[in-house]
Amino acid sequence: MEYISNTLGHLVEQTAFMNLTWGNLIMIAVACAFLYLAIRHEFEPLLLVPIAFGMLLVNIYPDIMLHAEDSSNGVGGLLYYFYVLDEWAILPSLIFMGVGAMTDFGPLIANPKSFLLGAAAQFGIFGAMAMGFSDKAAAAISIIGGADGPTSIFLAGKLQQTAIMGPIAVAAYSYMSLVPIIQPPIMKLLTTEEERKIKMEQLRPVSKLERILFPIVVTIVVCVILPTTAPLVGMLMLGNLFRECGVVRQLTETASNALMYIVVILLGTSVGATTSAEAFLNLSTIKIVVLGLVAFSFGTAAGVLFGKLMCKATGGKVNPLIGSAGVSAVPMAARVSQKVGAEADPTNFLLMHAMGPNVAGVIGTAVAAGTFMAIFGVK
Question: In sequence order, what are the residues at sequence separation of 6 or more whose Cβ sits closer than 8 angstroms to the Cβ of residue 285?
């Protein structure tokens, strides 16, 4: 009888119930809320589902993120090894290759002025470095303003800010997922009904030669000026070259489908697994989340305001709403521009026009990251 009671006692002690804290319960509730948003409202489910599930796992079983050096047998937890690939910038770079293979750069090539809107939306990155963090930490946090999760992870690793990489990544991916909630109020506040109704002229056709030359020229120009951007910009342009050259269909399909989704699973679950209650529920994390929101809001506002300036300069030919797509959340930000424009005028079609600033924003955020690395002497 004593043996049975001891055995049952050991089994009870091994359950998660004996180790759950109030913090764990809060994070489990947050994970369930994220899953609800992803599944019920389809807010970037490809990102939010694995992130939320990683969050759920680590707060039930913390050892799933156990570092190898802290383990009694020298073997770390499953998601720890996924996370190492984040720290080494492998997964963020592969994500960029997949994005390049999936994305049509034609709208940006057809309307090069879109680069200006993409650059304007990076204002949030450089305009929100505060709240008492060190220079490198502030730079790593402020890149959240570009709504670009892979770049946020990449820069945090390069600036040796691994201690706050988890909150930075979760904040960046959360804001990417919540673009449909965060951006529309800012867009409507800064534009008039008449501006939102502006219809833009159809973009010119882009030749195959232009499509092939674009990734090659951008890689040469950007990487010569800022060599540290090569892992991100280089992979982005390589993926796009796969797409546009027309002679490596198998590589295009692999980069934009199988490889892309495998990397999203690994990156999403490992990012979510950094949100243990002990690591996430503290004042520094709250500051990071707030600063990231401020940076993202500033970036959206700057893009819209520059869009208004272009509208005035062109005599009303540019709809300011496309400026909000200058952040890097491809293609969600462009879809939001389309949605808000269609609310003002159901016959308005802004999606392709918004894709230009959206693609420019991806390049712009990578350039901003490279600029920070150059400032701090990181190679």
Answer: 167, 279
pLDDT for 166: 82
Report the distance separating Cα 30 and Cα 52, nearest Å.
8
Q: For residue 378, give every residue at least 6 positions away whose Cβ sits within 8 Å of its Cβ, in sequence order, or none.
A: 158, 159, 228
Is residue 105 helix, strand or coil? coil
Tokens linked to 102: 């999936």
Which range in 12-16, 78-82, 128-132 is most confidently predicted, on average pLDDT?
78-82
Query: What's residue 348's pLDDT?
Result: 92
Q: Verify cis geometry, omega within 30 degrees of 0, for the bond prior to 331.
A: yes
What end-to-end distance do the CA atoms of the chain give, in Å? 65
Please spell the DSSP secondary structure of 6-55, one letter per residue. HHHHHHHHHSGGGT--HHHHHHHHHHHHHHHHHHHS-SSHHHHHHHHHHH
**Per residue, what are the HEC states of 138-197?**
HHHHHHHHHCCHHHHHHHHHHCCCHHHHHHHHHHHHHHHHCHHHHHHHHHHHHCCHHHHC
Output the CA angle 79-82-87, nearest 5 degrees.
120
